[in-house]
Amino acid sequence: MPYQRIVLAVDLTDESIEVANKAAAMCKAFEGQLTIIHVIESLNYAYGGDVPIDVSDIQEQLQTTATKHMAALVDQLDIPVESTIVTQGGIESEIHRVAEELRADLIIVGSHGRHGLALLLGSTANGVLHGAPCDVLAVRVKSSH
User: Fold this and answer.
1) DSSP string, 24-61
2) Could you report the per-residue pLDDT of 114-138, keeping only the tens digit for each?
3) Which residues form the UspA domain (predicted)?
4) How far is 106 from 134, CA to CA, in rounded Å?
């Protein structure tokens, strides 16, 4: 059965375009629809509880920056993108939630080297695999470092 509804989860690092190009190729091959999601881990969630300062301005800045980076990523693809989603929360749970809501056939994530945010996505790729409502494809990308 071909994949018709593909969810691409990106961390918006430089390597994201590699993963996005693979997702675009799969969409072309299967004539599927691509939704791209980026999850900003909420600071409260990341630190396991209440943060003693108001982080709403920081979260808003992160949202604005991520939305701009997402638009730039989409502009580099040679296929139409069904939708883009920038959301906040637990990374794996948000990816699972969106995949369920869209009745996705496939989630694509990058599997990165062990540096910076890529370390987070490396563990995220594993987290997405467990508990996913559909197939998961981890695309190995070369580290830029």
Assistant:
1) HHHHHHHT-EEEEEEEEE-HHHHTTS--SS--HHHHHH
2) 555 545 555 777 788 888 999 999 8
3) 3-140
4) 6
